[in-house]
Amino acid sequence: MTAALVAERVRRDYPLDGITVPALKGVSFTVEAGDYVAIIGPSGSGKSTLMHLLGGLDRPTEGKLLIGGRDVAGLGPEDLARLRNETIGFVFQSFHLLARTSAVENVALPLVYRGMRAVERRRRAIAMLERVGLGHRLDHRPNQLSGGEQQRVAIARALVTDPQVLLADEPTGNLDTKNGQAVLALLEALNREQGVALVIVTHDREVAERADRQIVMRDGEIVA
Ligand SMILES: Nc1ncnc2c1ncn2[C@@H]1O[C@H](COP(=O)(O)OP(=O)(O)O)[C@@H](O)[C@H]1O
Ligand SMILES: [Mg+2]
C-alpha cells in the first residue's frame, strides 16, 4: 500500500528581513496508512513548519514531498488544494472555526469543494458531529460552545471528508486537562476505529508515549 505521507530531505527556508531562517534542515520520514505518530520538541524546532508541509499548506524549499503517493512538486495550486481536500484533515491549537457559522455548517464546509449537494453535505456533517458526541449542538455557533466542544467541531470538520491522515498541531494546547484528555481520547479512537493515520504535535510526554512512534525535533532536524 502507498504510504500516506513521505518526506525526503525536506528543507524549508523562510526569508526574513534579508536573511534566511532555516526552519527545516533536511527532514526525512514516512507516515504509513493508519499510523499514530507523535512529534515533540522545543518551541521553534520546526514542528509546525513540518505539519504545514505534510498537509500541503506550504511547499518545501528543497527535497521531496509525497502526499497520498503524489509528488507535490508537480502540482499547481488548484491540484494541490484538491489533493489536500481529499487526503488531509487539519486540527489546530486555536480551532479555526468560522465565528458566525453554526457547528453543522462549519463541518459541512469542506464538502462544498466536492460539489456535493447541500442535503448530502448536511447529512454527513450531522453524522460526523454525532460521532464526536455533539449531535445535540448542531446549530450552536462557536461562541456558544466550550473550548472542548469547539475542538470536537474542528475534529468533525477535519474528518468529514474521510481523509487518509489527520494532522493535529497541539490540539489540546488551549484546553484544560479534562477537555484535553477527552479530545485526545477521541482522536485516538478515530485512529483505531476508522484507520485514519494520526500525526500529533504535543508537549505532553504521556501523550507521546502512547503513540506508535515518536519523532523528536530540535533546531529544524529530527534527532530521534
Ligand atoms: N513565516 C515565518 N517567517 C520566518 N520565520 C518563521 C516563520 N514561521 C516560522 N519561522 C521560524 O521557523 C522556526 C520554526 O518554527 P515553527 O515551525 O513554528 O516551530 P515550532 O512549531 O516547533 O514551535 C522558528 O525559528 C520560527 O521563528
Ligand atoms: Mg508550533
Automatic annotation (TrEMBL):
InterPro entries in the cross-refs: AAA+_ATPase (IPR003593), ABC_transporter-like_ATP-bd (IPR003439), ABC_transporter-like_CS (IPR017871), ABC_transpr_LolD-like (IPR015854), MacB-like_ATP-bd (IPR017911), P-loop_NTPase (IPR027417)
Keywords, comma-separated and alphabetical: ATP-binding, Nucleotide-binding, Transport
Entry keyword annotation includes Transport: yes
Annotated ranges, domain ABC transporter: 5-223
GO molecular-function term, one example from the UniProt record: ATP binding
Superkingdom of this protein's organism: Bacteria
Entry's transmembrane regions: none
Xref: Pfam families: ABC_tran
Descriptive protein name: ABC transporter ATP-binding protein
Species of origin: Dactylosporangium roseum
